[in-house]
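ok here's the first one, seq then C-alpha cells
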Amino acid sequence: MQCGSGSSGTGMAHPPIHLTANSKSVVPKVAKQLTELGVPAGCVVAHVGKCRVTLVGCAVADVISALFVVNHVERVLLEVNSCTPDQARAMLSDLNRASTFAEAARWAPVLSAFSVINHRAPLSWTLDSRLRVPTTAGDAAPPSKIDLQNATRQGLHLALGKLGLTHNTATPDMLVFLSVTGSSCTLSVPILGRRIVEKLVHKGLHHTVAWGMGRTAKLVPGEVVVDVCVGKAAVLLESASTWPECQYLGCDIDPDQLRCAAENVAAHSRKVVELVRGDSARGVPVRGGIVDCAVSDLPFGRAMSTAAENRMFYPRICAELRRILRPGVGRAVLLTGEESDDILQAALEDSGLHTVRRAAFPFGGNKDRMMCALFMVTAAATDADRALAEGLFDWRFTEKLDENGRHNWRNEKPCMVLYRPKAHVAKPATAHPPKDAGVDPSTPPGDVQ
C-alpha cells in the first residue's frame, strides 16, 4: 500500500484522515492495526490525548480497505481545514473569521476523496457543530453555537455553491462538521461510521465466520438461500443483515434449536428468515431444483453429534443438497471441523456434487490450534458447468488463506459502514408566525438547523 504526501490544509494533495477511537486506551491498538493492514507506519500518527489516529499523506483510495475493517473506531473523517490555537481564539471573538475559515478551505481534494468512497459526488450538504470553550471569571462570553453555525454556513454557501452543491437539511448527501474548543478549530467531513452488530439472544457461530460464509457464497438479490442445519440461525441472520434481498429458509430437527432460532429471528431487525422443522437428512421441505444457494454450519462432531454419527448423517445431507440445488448453477458453502473433514469430502463425492475448492482455517482465536474446513460446492453436472463454477464464489478470503494459513475472518468483515447524515425533520408550523417570518430562510444569516 502506497501513500502520497500532504494535507488539504497545508497545500498538499490529500486531506488528513482522522479516525476517532472509542477510548484513549485503544489508540495505540488502532495505530498498530492500521500498519498491520498495510498503511505505511510513517503515515500513521497517534494522538492519545485527542483519542484519535490521523493518517497523513494518504489517498483514500490507497487505504480504503484498511479503513473499513479497522477495530475500535467510532468515526472516520476527512479534514477540510484546521487552525492554530491563537487563530481559534481569534475566531471566537470575531465570527467573520469563521465564515472566512469555511470559505478558504480546500474543498476539491475532500470532495474527490468523498466521491471515491461513496462512488458518486455529493450534491448537497448540511452543517453541524460542537462548541466546547471553557471560560473563567472575567473572560468574555463565547458566541452561541447558533451564531457560530450561522457564520460558518455563510462561508460554506459561498465555497460549496461554486462547486455545485446545495444546502439541504432534509436529505443531505454530506455532513460538514465544525469542532471548536478553546485551543483548536477543525472543519471536517465524516465518511465512515461504526457498524452496529446485532447481538443474538442465543449465541451461535461467530458473526465474522457467519458473514464470511455469506460473502464466499456470493449471494445475489432474489436468490433462495437455505440452511439445512440452521441451529440458532446465526448464519442466515448474519447473511440477511448484509444481503437482505434474498429469501432465507432454515430447517432443523431439534425443537430446542428451532426455539432459540425463532427468538433470534424475532429480535433481529431483518424479518426475512423463515424457519421450518424437519429432518434434513430424510428430506428438506422444499421442492427439488429450486434452491440457488445453501449455507450451512454442519455439526462438527464436537459439541453436536460425533464423527461416527456424521458418517451416517453427512451422506444423507449431501444427497438432499444434490436434490434441492438448482441444476448446474446451484451452489453450497459448507463448514465442518477437522474431525469430520474427510467424511464430508467422501460424502460430497458420492452424492455427485462438485467440490470447487476446500479451505482450512483456525476455528477460534490465535491460540486455538483446531481447524475448520470450508467447502465450496456446486451442483455442476457437465464439464461446461464445472468450467463456470469458479465464478459462482467470492475467493478473496481463501486467497489470503493461501498466503497465511492463520488468516482470520475478523480481518475481513467490515467494522465500518458509509456515514449517512441524519435527516432533519421540520417542526410543525405554529399558529403565530415567528418575528423574523419575513426573512428568507434560505439565506445564510437566518439559516439555522
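and now the second one, same deal
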Amino acid sequence: MSNLAQRELFGGAITADFPTDLIDASQLRQIPDTQEVLLSTVSDDSIVLEILQRVPPVDFTEAAKFHFSSIAQDNEAISSSVEEVLTVPNDRGDLTPSVVILYGRQGVQKFNRTHVDDVRVLLALYRVEDKSVDLVLTLNFPMNVGNGVVRSEDQYHEAKRAFQAIATSLRIIDFSLFA
C-alpha cells in the first residue's frame, strides 16, 4: 500500500488516513448512501466503510466476527476463518469509539472461475452505542492477483500494518451522521 493521506468521508463527517492510490468508487458506479467504497488503482484491493445497524452480540469481538461472517455470506465464500481479533483503544481524547480489528480469510470463487481465490479480509468495528450503529471498515486483500501471480505473506503483513494505521486514524467528526 502506498503513502497515507487524510481523506474526508460522508461529506466530512468522518476522516481517516488512506493510501493515496485509492479512488472513490462512486465516480465509477452507484454506491449506497450508507457506504463509502475506495478502489486501488494498482491492485484488486478495495476498502469499504459502511454504516450498519448494531448487531445483536454485546461482546465487541463477537460482533466483529458476526460482521465477518455476514461478509463471507455476501461473498458466497466457500470457506472462511478468523485469524486474529484485537482491540485498539482510542487514546486520542476524542469521542470516536475504540476499534476492534479482525483479520480473517475467505475462499471465494470469483467471476465464474473454477479455482478458489484466497481473499484476506481485514475488518475494523467501531460501535457507536448511543446511536445503535456499527461502523464497519473492511479491506479486501486478494492473495491471488491474476495471471498466476500470488502475493506473499510479507505483502499481506504490510497490508495489515497499513490497515491498522487506517483504522486507528479514523475519527468521527460529526455524530449527527448517525441520526
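notes on #2: Strands lie at 4-9, 14-19, 22-24, 35-40, 46-53, 79-88, 99-108, 117-128, 133-142, 171-172. The helical segments are 60-74, 153-169.
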